[in-house]
Amino acid sequence: MKSILVLGGAGYIGSHTVYELIDNGKDVVVVDNLQTGHKEAIHPKARFYQGDIRDRKFMDSVFEKEDIGGVIHFAACSQVGESMQDPLKYYNNNLYGTEVVLESMVAHGIDKIVFSSTAATYGEPENIPIVETDATVPTNCYGETKLSMEKMMKWTGVAHPLRYVALRYFNACGCHPNGLLGEGHDPETHLIPIILQVANGTRPSISIFGNDYDTKDGTCVRDYIHVCDLATAHILALEYLMEGKESNVFNLGNGVGFTVSEVIECTRKVTGHPIPAVIAPRRAGDPSTLIASSQKAKEVLHWNPKYDSLETIIETAWNWHKQHINGYNS
Ligand code: UDP
Ligand 1 test: best mutation among 117, 169, 214, 260, most atoms within 8 Å of CB? Predict the structure, then answer.
């Protein structure tokens, strides 16, 4: 059996996908530089190589040692706010890193890659829910680099025998029900883990970034999708490529939008904590509303997300955060 190489397999969505792959009987190789990933999150049955995707010699050595049948690529910087302050970090890690990965794949005759893209590729949407054929005009540098990664794969696939699936996630959240895997970024910037840090006593309050958006309560609307549902989609996407099908792009979301205030209120209910909230200025680059149509993923990949209730999703995240007051360092 050929192995699946997971780049960024110690990170949040990567580690959940590795567990899902191994639970499905796959042989998995993980590459991670551990800059933001956590060694503790790597499945004990995965073979782990610590190194950077921008290091061509390192990438070549992994492809030479292992018999790789396909790649799942999560190894990228993913924070909207940081990307606006340090855009070149995003160009270097996300674009240059992907260039090296593709060069090494082409050199070793590996022709299938599934990769993390994002709703941020759309920018301010022209329609709600967003479909894959809508205009892509990113409003932040993170989304711009992810869109450029998609295009890099497209043009590489024109010149070489390489096929890709780009999965445009909406807001990934929740934690594995096994209690072993969670969401631990340092610094944390994502909404649900920050709210849960208020509930577990490590933060005094949550700042709401803007309450003057054109939404029902003035706060931004997002489509929250459980990380295990995203993990499943990667396996389906890889199987789709293994069936010889063409490169493709899919949205992954629940198709339901919640405002920031609604997410805070739901977390109060789940945790029983009052969770003080303060209004803060808008965050640069934030579109007001992002809601997915995932019809295409459901029809083509036969993806069927299991976690369709925000309350259940937050319960899985709370289960981890209440036991990991200091994240993976707890
Ligand atoms: N947000 C917020 N306070 C925070 C973190 C996030 O109000 O401390 C808002 C943010 O402006 C966005 C939503 O919560 O509207 C989701 O942000 P997150 O960073 O979790 O994901 P993104 O939508 O950027 O991928």
Answer: 260
Pair 198, 206: CB distance under 8 Å: yes
pLDDT tens for residues 143-153? 999 999 999 99
Q: How far apart are CA 230 and CA 305, in angstroms?
A: 8
Q: Which band of pLDDT confidence, cut at 50, 70 and 90, is reported for residue 325? A: confident
> Residue-wise over 7-25: b if at least 16 C-beta within 10 A, else e?
bbbbbbbbbbbbbbbbeee
Which residues touch 197 (CB under 8 Å, ≥6 apart)?
188, 203, 321
Q: Would you say the CB of residue 80 lies under 6 angstroms from ligand 1?
A: yes
For ligand 1, say whether the CB of 12 is within 6 Å of any of its atoms: no
Question: pLDDT at position 160, please?
Answer: 98
Place of tokens 């990667």: 234
C-alpha angle with apex 293: 142 to 151, nearest 5 degrees?
40
Q: Kindly tell me the sign of the dihedral angle through the C-alpha atoms of 119, 121, 127, 133.
A: negative
Scan for tokens 């979301």, then name that residue: 253
Residue 278's pLDDT is 98
